[in-house]
Specification:
It contains 2 helices and 33 strands. The protein has about 425 residues and is mainly β. The strands form 8 sheets. Strands 1-27-28-29-30 form a 5-stranded mixed β-sheet, with no helix packed on it.
Length: about 425
């Protein structure tokens, strides 16, 4: 005998599943699973005027500019603990500290902006890799036990410029590709980029001769070949990740090494941007052909109006959304990826962090104000605001996992519920 649900029950049953939010549970590295800052969860709460996001918890964390990663309901980041900089692990349910592992004497930059680590850890196959300002690179288990320890300056022979014009120290976030953990010591003698074996900490290769950059590398598959794309102090490099062969180099930037924003690969174009006069460019990466045996980089467009200092730009539906400005006049701009044309711009109160969420931009002001903005090229439109949620300096990149938003200032970590 067949049994049927009543029509109303069937409709309710189907609507329940249709309206379930699609969530991605983990945020395992800087800027998320794809290292692009784009949250792919659906069904989130964007009606902030009627239902503002609830604060699930707020906990003391300590000084540091590192963002957080979230894996298996555990949070990992870097923070100052008394006189040491440490890897810290928290429970994502309530923010309770589970353990911390001291790595190095705490770091304070030359301009005294703040103590603590700058680089965001990365999780891969049950291990956490974290880089610290003076070059210490550690591999820990998720239980906080050290597997190996290295120093990217001592191992590669690259000079540590911390305290000179590179006063922020090592700030780029490591990336794991295959069996390698890749970092950027910034040596000028074939030791600009370095790869360590993820299990042993053995130095596998060194490559490039560009000074250190603050921005973090990404990977992209271009014309069927995997590229490690590394922003340096004076260029952007394309490196074959397994052996460290430099495939191409494109001069970009200035002597001030002035961006913490990662490159963005979208729609077969590489977008790069830096502040203090460097500007922006959209680059086409062309593979070797029968006439040329090397990869070619061609500028599709270049302009000076978009100059990104901190937050990585988001590329959505053929448009770049990012912040321009270094010392003053901070602007949120929408720029066409096709030709660099500015579609709109809006003055913002100070430096900002940025994520993209299902057709929206989440802007985190350095003084703690949060704005939700529509990601569309017609005009600037605010959907919601959360004033004074954090304290100055809220410079860490926001993170997102399992419907929850994680925000950090110099003293606290906050978890907001963005689920409906």
């Amino acid at each position: 005998m067949r049994h049927f649900l009543p029509r109303t029950a069937c409709c309710t049953f189907l609507l329940f599943f249709i309206n379930l939010p699609a969530v991605a549970a983990d945020w395992p590295q800087f800027l998320g699973p794809n290292r692009d800052g784009i949250v792919r969860d659906k069904g989130l709460n964007f009606d902030w005027k009627t239902k503002p996001p609830a604060t699930l918890w707020k906990v003391p964390l300590g000084n540091g500019f590192a963002s957080v990663i979230i894996v298996d309901n555990k949070i990992y980041t870097g923070a100052k603990r008394e006189t040491k900089d440490a890897v810290v692990c928290l429970d994502a349910k309530d923010g309770k500290e589970l353990w911390h592992f001291d790595v190095a004497p705490t770091y304070l930059d030359k301009q005294k902006h703040g103590y603590g680590p700058r680089s965001t850890p990365v999780h891969h196959q049950g291990k956490v890799y974290a880089l610290f300002p003076m070059g210490e690179l550690v591999c820990l288990t998720t239980a906080g036990k050290q597997v190996w320890h290295a120093n990217i300056f001592k191992d590669t022979g690259a000079k540590n410029h911390a305290g000179e014009k590179y006063y922020w120290g090592a700030s780029m976030s490591p990336i794991v590709e295959g069996d390698l953990v890749i970092v950027q010591p910034g040596g000028t003698d074939g030791n600009s980029v370095a790869a360590y074996h993820k299990d042993t900490g053995k130095l596998v290769w060194k490559a490039g001769s560009d000074p250190m950059g603050y921005a973090s590398p990404i990977t992209a598959t271009i014309a069927g070949k995997k590229h490690l794309i590394v922003p340096t102090g004076q260029s952007v490099l394309g490196v074959e990740p397994a052996k460290g062969e430099v495939l191409w180099r494109h001069a970009f930037g200035n002597e001030f090494n002035a961006t913490a924003a990662s490159p963005v690969w979208a729609d077969n174009v590489l977008f790069v941007s830096a502040a203090y006069g460097a500007g922006s460019a959209a680059l086409e990466i062309l593979p070797p052909d029968k006439d040329k045996k090397t990869w070619t980089v061609r500028e599709k467009w270049k302009q000076k109006k978009m100059q990104t200092l901190m937050a990585t730009s988001m590329v959505l539906d053929g448009h770049i959304y990012g912040f321009s400005g270094d010392l003053s006049a901070f602007l949120l701009r929408c720029v066409s990826l096709t030709d660099g044309e500015i579609k709109w711009e809006e003055r913002m109160p100070g430096r900002q962090g940025l994520l993209a969420l299902d057709g929206h931009l989440l802007c985190v002001g350095e003084r703690g104000d949060i704005q939700l903005i529509e990601a569309q090229p017609r005009s600037f439109a605010v959907k919601g605001e959360l004033p004074k949620l954090l304290a100055y300096k809220a410079w860490s990149s926001p993170a997102f996992a399992d419907g929850k938003l994680y925000l950090r200032d110099q003293q606290h970590l906050v978890c907001l519920d963005l689920r409906k």
